[in-house]
Amino acid sequence: MPDASLHSRLDALLSTQLQGVMATQQHAQPYTSLMAFAHTPDLRHLIFATLRDTQKHTNLLLNAQVSFLIDDRNNDPIDYQNAVALSVYGRANAISLAQRDSALKGYLHKHPSLLAFVASADCALLQVVVSSYRLVSQFQAVEVLRIEAR
């Protein structure tokens, strides 16, 4: 990993925040959804769940490119200097059967109250295969971590 410090800060933010805003596309317009998520320790994937009969799921079937915004703001004026915001870019896809148990375990470890939701036959467990992270802190300091494809 080129920057262990950045990796560690990203992992800490992703571990402490329960939700983020996922952006998909709907007819060339951004479409945003508040989503519970988990991440893999290597930072290569964000895991999320959605019902199949939703606009976001339809959007993902048409265009898998997504971005996620995750931040630690407190809705306080000091946030301009203290809050960090993380933009995650990648492609969403179904989780393979071989990875499903591990992904589900990680997701439910972070979100145990969502067990009934993810157990529903109408629920899809998906992942974002991350291509890059952009961390913004101190109002305008930007750090980028690109994830190499395997």
Write the layout of secondary structure elements.
Elements: H1 4-16, E1 19-26, E2 29-36, E3 38-39, E4 45-51, H2 55-62, E5 65-71, H3 79-82, E6 85-94, H4 97-110, H5 115-119, E7 123-137, E8 141-146
Antiparallel strand pairs: 1-2, 1-5, 3-4, 4-7, 5-6, 6-7, 7-8
Report on this structure.
The chain is α+β, with helices and mostly antiparallel strands and 150 residues long. The protein has a single domain (4-145), classed as Pnp Oxidase, Chain A, CATH 2.30.110. Helix content is 29%, strand content 42%. It is built from five helices and eight strands. It has helices at 4-16, 55-62, 79-82, 97-110, 115-119, and strands at 19-26, 29-36, 38-39, 45-51, 65-71, 85-94, 123-137, 141-146. Strands 1, 2, 3, 4, 5, 6, 7 and 8 form an eight-stranded antiparallel sheet that branches. The protein is globular. The protein starts with a helix and ends with a strand.
